[in-house]
Amino acid sequence: MKRLLFAAFMIISSIVNAQEYTESAPLGFDVARQNIAHGKIDTLVYHSETVDTNRRALIYTPPGYSTNNKYPVLYLLHGIGGDEKEWFTQGQPQVILDNLYAEGKLIPMIVVLPNGRAMKDDRAAGNIMAPDKVQAFATFEKDLLNDLIPFVESNYPVLTEREHRALAGLSMGGGQSLNFGLGNLDKFAWVGGFSSAPNTKSPELLVPEPDQAKQQLKLLWLSCGDQDGLINFSKRTHEYLAANGVPHIYQVIPGGYHDFKVWKDNLWQFSQLLFKSAD
Ligand code: FER
To answer: Where is the signal peptide (predicted)?
Structure first.
Protein backbone atom coordinates (compact mmCIF):
# COMPACT_ATOMS: atom_id res chain seq x y z
CA MET A 1 0.00 0.00 0.00
CA LYS A 2 2.78 2.38 0.96
CA ARG A 3 4.53 1.58 -2.28
CA LEU A 4 1.35 2.20 -4.25
CA LEU A 5 0.83 5.56 -2.56
CA PHE A 6 4.43 6.50 -3.30
CA ALA A 7 4.02 5.53 -6.98
CA ALA A 8 0.80 7.55 -7.18
CA PHE A 9 2.55 10.52 -5.59
CA MET A 10 5.42 10.31 -8.07
CA ILE A 11 3.06 10.15 -11.05
CA ILE A 12 0.93 13.05 -9.84
CA SER A 13 3.92 15.24 -9.00
CA SER A 14 5.48 14.57 -12.40
CA ILE A 15 2.23 15.67 -14.09
CA VAL A 16 2.06 18.83 -11.98
CA ASN A 17 5.68 19.65 -12.82
CA ALA A 18 5.18 18.86 -16.49
CA GLN A 19 2.59 21.62 -16.77
CA GLU A 20 5.19 24.19 -15.90
CA TYR A 21 8.07 22.57 -17.74
CA THR A 22 7.72 22.99 -21.47
CA GLU A 23 10.73 21.92 -23.46
CA SER A 24 14.30 21.26 -22.55
CA ALA A 25 17.34 21.20 -24.78
CA PRO A 26 18.13 17.98 -26.70
CA LEU A 27 21.33 16.04 -26.09
CA GLY A 28 24.27 17.71 -27.86
CA PHE A 29 22.82 21.24 -27.77
CA ASP A 30 25.96 22.42 -25.96
CA VAL A 31 28.55 20.36 -27.84
CA ALA A 32 30.68 22.22 -30.40
CA ARG A 33 30.10 21.08 -33.99
CA GLN A 34 32.85 21.32 -36.60
CA ASN A 35 30.81 21.38 -39.78
CA ILE A 36 28.75 24.51 -39.10
CA ALA A 37 29.30 28.27 -39.27
CA HIS A 38 30.59 29.86 -36.07
CA GLY A 39 30.03 33.25 -34.51
CA LYS A 40 32.84 35.21 -32.99
CA ILE A 41 33.63 36.23 -29.41
CA ASP A 42 35.62 39.40 -28.76
CA THR A 43 36.40 41.64 -25.82
CA LEU A 44 35.29 45.25 -25.92
CA VAL A 45 36.51 48.05 -23.66
CA TYR A 46 34.27 51.03 -22.90
CA HIS A 47 34.65 54.08 -20.75
CA SER A 48 32.29 54.13 -17.79
CA GLU A 49 31.37 57.58 -16.48
CA THR A 50 29.49 55.76 -13.73
CA VAL A 51 32.56 54.00 -12.36
CA ASP A 52 35.08 56.52 -13.74
CA THR A 53 37.20 53.83 -15.34
CA ASN A 54 37.50 51.67 -18.46
CA ARG A 55 35.53 48.44 -18.25
CA ARG A 56 35.43 45.17 -20.21
CA ALA A 57 32.64 43.14 -21.72
CA LEU A 58 32.63 40.18 -24.09
CA ILE A 59 30.64 40.42 -27.29
CA TYR A 60 29.40 37.54 -29.47
CA THR A 61 28.57 38.34 -33.06
CA PRO A 62 26.54 35.68 -34.92
CA PRO A 63 27.61 33.51 -37.88
CA GLY A 64 27.39 35.56 -41.09
CA TYR A 65 27.75 38.81 -39.12
CA SER A 66 28.05 41.84 -41.38
CA THR A 67 28.25 45.54 -40.64
CA ASN A 68 25.84 46.00 -43.56
CA ASN A 69 23.09 44.60 -41.33
CA LYS A 70 21.61 45.87 -38.09
CA TYR A 71 21.10 43.52 -35.18
CA PRO A 72 19.01 43.34 -32.03
CA VAL A 73 21.02 42.94 -28.82
CA LEU A 74 20.78 40.61 -25.83
CA TYR A 75 22.65 41.76 -22.72
CA LEU A 76 23.37 38.58 -20.74
CA LEU A 77 24.40 38.94 -17.10
CA HIS A 78 26.44 36.76 -14.71
CA GLY A 79 26.09 35.77 -11.05
CA ILE A 80 27.68 36.87 -7.78
CA GLY A 81 30.73 34.63 -8.20
CA GLY A 82 31.40 35.64 -11.77
CA ASP A 83 32.46 38.41 -14.10
CA GLU A 84 32.16 39.13 -17.82
CA LYS A 85 33.76 35.75 -18.56
CA GLU A 86 31.49 33.57 -16.41
CA TRP A 87 28.97 32.70 -19.11
CA PHE A 88 31.77 32.18 -21.61
CA THR A 89 33.89 29.84 -19.48
CA GLN A 90 31.09 27.91 -17.78
CA GLY A 91 28.13 28.20 -20.13
CA GLN A 92 29.75 28.44 -23.56
CA PRO A 93 26.85 30.44 -24.99
CA GLN A 94 28.69 30.70 -28.31
CA VAL A 95 28.43 26.91 -28.74
CA ILE A 96 24.73 26.80 -27.81
CA LEU A 97 23.93 29.73 -30.11
CA ASP A 98 26.10 28.53 -33.03
CA ASN A 99 24.19 25.21 -32.91
CA LEU A 100 20.83 26.99 -32.86
CA TYR A 101 21.83 29.20 -35.81
CA ALA A 102 22.86 26.09 -37.74
CA GLU A 103 19.32 24.78 -37.20
CA GLY A 104 17.76 28.07 -38.30
CA LYS A 105 16.20 28.64 -34.89
CA LEU A 106 17.44 32.12 -33.97
CA ILE A 107 16.93 35.66 -35.19
CA PRO A 108 20.49 36.92 -35.75
CA MET A 109 21.45 38.96 -32.72
CA ILE A 110 24.49 40.35 -30.93
CA VAL A 111 25.03 39.10 -27.39
CA VAL A 112 26.90 41.32 -24.93
CA LEU A 113 28.31 39.77 -21.76
CA PRO A 114 29.02 42.66 -19.38
CA ASN A 115 30.69 42.75 -16.00
CA GLY A 116 27.73 43.52 -13.72
CA ARG A 117 29.82 44.46 -10.69
CA ALA A 118 30.15 48.17 -11.40
CA MET A 119 33.12 49.23 -9.28
CA LYS A 120 36.78 49.94 -9.94
CA ASP A 121 37.96 46.48 -8.85
CA ASP A 122 35.25 44.44 -10.53
CA ARG A 123 36.86 41.00 -10.11
CA ALA A 124 35.04 38.24 -8.24
CA ALA A 125 37.88 38.02 -5.73
CA GLY A 126 37.96 38.03 -1.93
CA ASN A 127 34.60 38.18 -0.15
CA ILE A 128 32.15 38.23 -3.05
CA MET A 129 29.31 38.96 -0.57
CA ALA A 130 30.99 42.13 0.79
CA PRO A 131 28.45 44.99 0.94
CA ASP A 132 30.36 47.21 -1.51
CA LYS A 133 30.51 44.36 -4.03
CA VAL A 134 26.82 43.59 -3.68
CA GLN A 135 26.05 47.33 -4.01
CA ALA A 136 28.06 47.38 -7.25
CA PHE A 137 25.50 45.00 -8.80
CA ALA A 138 22.86 47.71 -8.22
CA THR A 139 25.16 50.50 -9.47
CA PHE A 140 25.45 48.56 -12.73
CA GLU A 141 22.02 49.86 -13.77
CA LYS A 142 23.56 53.29 -14.46
CA ASP A 143 26.66 51.83 -16.11
CA LEU A 144 24.52 49.67 -18.39
CA LEU A 145 22.07 52.39 -19.40
CA ASN A 146 24.40 55.38 -19.57
CA ASP A 147 27.75 53.88 -20.56
CA LEU A 148 27.66 50.37 -22.02
CA ILE A 149 24.51 50.52 -24.15
CA PRO A 150 25.48 53.88 -25.74
CA PHE A 151 28.96 52.47 -26.44
CA VAL A 152 27.55 49.35 -28.12
CA GLU A 153 25.11 51.46 -30.10
CA SER A 154 27.74 53.80 -31.42
CA ASN A 155 30.32 51.11 -32.22
CA TYR A 156 28.31 48.17 -33.57
CA PRO A 157 25.54 47.88 -36.18
CA VAL A 158 22.61 47.50 -33.82
CA LEU A 159 18.92 48.32 -33.73
CA THR A 160 18.24 50.79 -30.95
CA GLU A 161 14.49 50.63 -30.26
CA ARG A 162 13.28 48.91 -27.10
CA GLU A 163 11.73 46.11 -29.19
CA HIS A 164 15.25 45.18 -30.27
CA ARG A 165 16.85 45.09 -26.83
CA ALA A 166 16.76 42.17 -24.37
CA LEU A 167 18.13 41.78 -20.85
CA ALA A 168 18.58 38.45 -19.10
CA GLY A 169 20.86 36.91 -16.53
CA LEU A 170 21.48 34.25 -13.95
CA SER A 171 21.06 34.64 -10.20
CA MET A 172 22.39 38.14 -9.25
CA GLY A 173 22.20 38.82 -12.99
CA GLY A 174 18.62 37.52 -12.98
CA GLY A 175 17.73 39.95 -10.20
CA GLN A 176 19.48 42.75 -12.12
CA SER A 177 17.58 41.83 -15.30
CA LEU A 178 14.21 41.92 -13.56
CA ASN A 179 15.05 45.11 -11.62
CA PHE A 180 16.54 47.06 -14.53
CA GLY A 181 14.42 45.54 -17.30
CA LEU A 182 11.06 46.00 -15.61
CA GLY A 183 12.23 49.33 -14.17
CA ASN A 184 13.11 50.65 -17.64
CA LEU A 185 10.38 49.43 -19.95
CA ASP A 186 11.23 52.27 -22.30
CA LYS A 187 14.56 50.51 -22.88
CA PHE A 188 13.80 46.78 -22.75
CA ALA A 189 10.95 44.73 -24.22
CA TRP A 190 12.43 41.27 -23.56
CA VAL A 191 13.38 40.35 -19.99
CA GLY A 192 14.57 37.09 -18.44
CA GLY A 193 15.45 36.14 -14.88
CA PHE A 194 17.14 32.76 -14.47
CA SER A 195 17.21 31.56 -10.82
CA SER A 196 17.01 35.18 -9.67
CA ALA A 197 18.80 36.08 -6.41
CA PRO A 198 17.73 38.02 -3.27
CA ASN A 199 18.64 41.27 -5.04
CA THR A 200 15.33 40.91 -6.94
CA LYS A 201 13.04 43.74 -5.85
CA SER A 202 9.76 42.83 -4.19
CA PRO A 203 7.03 42.27 -6.80
CA GLU A 204 5.14 45.48 -5.94
CA LEU A 205 8.29 47.54 -6.52
CA LEU A 206 9.29 45.51 -9.55
CA VAL A 207 5.98 45.96 -11.35
CA PRO A 208 4.11 48.86 -9.74
CA GLU A 209 1.98 49.35 -12.85
CA PRO A 210 0.95 45.92 -14.16
CA ASP A 211 -1.07 47.38 -17.05
CA GLN A 212 1.93 49.23 -18.40
CA ALA A 213 4.10 46.10 -18.15
CA LYS A 214 1.37 44.13 -19.88
CA GLN A 215 1.33 46.55 -22.80
CA GLN A 216 5.06 47.01 -23.21
CA LEU A 217 6.66 43.61 -22.60
CA LYS A 218 7.22 41.28 -25.52
CA LEU A 219 8.52 38.54 -23.22
CA LEU A 220 8.94 38.15 -19.50
CA TRP A 221 10.65 34.91 -18.55
CA LEU A 222 11.18 33.53 -15.05
CA SER A 223 12.74 30.18 -14.34
CA CYS A 224 14.29 28.32 -11.44
CA GLY A 225 15.20 24.79 -10.43
CA ASP A 226 12.89 23.26 -7.83
CA GLN A 227 15.98 22.26 -5.79
CA ASP A 228 17.33 25.84 -5.79
CA GLY A 229 17.22 27.52 -2.36
CA LEU A 230 16.47 30.85 -4.08
CA ILE A 231 13.27 29.67 -5.79
CA ASN A 232 11.03 31.84 -3.63
CA PHE A 233 12.28 35.00 -5.37
CA SER A 234 11.00 33.65 -8.70
CA LYS A 235 7.87 32.11 -7.22
CA ARG A 236 6.68 35.28 -5.46
CA THR A 237 7.28 37.29 -8.63
CA HIS A 238 5.35 34.75 -10.70
CA GLU A 239 2.44 34.77 -8.23
CA TYR A 240 2.19 38.57 -8.31
CA LEU A 241 2.36 38.67 -12.12
CA ALA A 242 -0.31 35.98 -12.38
CA ALA A 243 -2.56 37.77 -9.87
CA ASN A 244 -2.19 41.02 -11.83
CA GLY A 245 -2.66 39.56 -15.29
CA VAL A 246 0.85 40.23 -16.61
CA PRO A 247 1.67 37.56 -19.24
CA HIS A 248 4.92 35.74 -18.54
CA ILE A 249 6.57 32.35 -18.71
CA TYR A 250 7.33 30.69 -15.39
CA GLN A 251 9.36 27.56 -15.62
CA VAL A 252 10.16 25.38 -12.63
CA ILE A 253 12.81 22.85 -13.56
CA PRO A 254 12.27 19.50 -11.85
CA GLY A 255 15.48 18.41 -10.12
CA GLY A 256 17.14 21.70 -11.11
CA TYR A 257 19.82 23.19 -8.85
CA HIS A 258 21.58 26.57 -8.85
CA ASP A 259 23.97 25.73 -11.66
CA PHE A 260 24.89 26.02 -15.32
CA LYS A 261 22.97 22.88 -16.27
CA VAL A 262 19.83 24.94 -15.60
CA TRP A 263 21.19 28.20 -17.07
CA LYS A 264 22.44 26.67 -20.32
CA ASP A 265 19.04 25.10 -20.83
CA ASN A 266 17.40 28.45 -20.02
CA LEU A 267 19.55 30.21 -22.60
CA TRP A 268 18.71 27.55 -25.20
CA GLN A 269 14.99 28.12 -24.64
CA PHE A 270 14.95 31.87 -24.01
CA SER A 271 17.13 32.78 -27.01
CA GLN A 272 14.74 30.99 -29.39
CA LEU A 273 11.88 33.24 -28.28
CA LEU A 274 13.80 36.49 -28.69
CA PHE A 275 12.90 39.13 -31.23
CA LYS A 276 10.13 36.99 -32.73
CA SER A 277 6.51 38.07 -32.57
CA ALA A 278 5.42 36.83 -29.16
CA ASP A 279 2.11 35.32 -28.20
C1 FER B 1 22.39 35.79 -1.27
C2 FER B 1 22.37 34.53 -1.81
C3 FER B 1 22.76 34.33 -3.14
C4 FER B 1 22.82 36.88 -2.05
C5 FER B 1 23.19 36.67 -3.36
C6 FER B 1 23.18 35.40 -3.91
C7 FER B 1 23.27 39.20 -2.15
C8 FER B 1 23.61 35.25 -5.30
C9 FER B 1 23.90 34.09 -5.88
C10 FER B 1 24.42 34.02 -7.27
O11 FER B 1 24.55 35.05 -7.95
O12 FER B 1 24.69 32.91 -7.73
O13 FER B 1 22.02 36.01 0.00
O14 FER B 1 22.80 38.10 -1.45
So the answer is: 1-18
Q: Which residue minimizes the CA distance to atom 13 of ligand 1?
A: 198
CA of 257 to the centre of ligand 1 (A): 14
Nearest to 78 by CA among 10, 162, 176: 176
Picking from 202, 208, 201, 236, the residue whose alpha carbon sits closest to that of residue 222 is 236
Kindly report, residue by residue over 102-129, the tens digit of the pLDDT.
Answer: 999 999 999 999 999 999 999 999 999 9
* 208 assigned to some structural domain: yes
> Quick one: which atom of ligand 1 is closest to the CA of 170?
11
pTM (two decimals): 0.92
Which CATH number is 128's domain given? 3.40.50.1820
Q: Which residues have C-beta atoms less than 6 Å from ligand 1?
A: 79-80, 134, 171-172, 197-199
CA of 211 to the centre of ligand 1 (A): 30
pLDDT in tens, 22-69: 669 999 999 999 999 999 999 999 999 999 999 999 999 999 999 999
- Count up the domains in the chain and report the number: 1
User: Ligand 1: which of 77, 80, 176 to mutate, judged by most atoms within 8 Å of the beta carbon?
Assistant: 80
CA dist., res. 111 & res. 99, Å (int): 15
The answer to whether residue 252 sits within a structural domain is yes
Is 217:191 a contact under the CB 8 Å cutoff? yes
Domain with 46 in it:
40-273
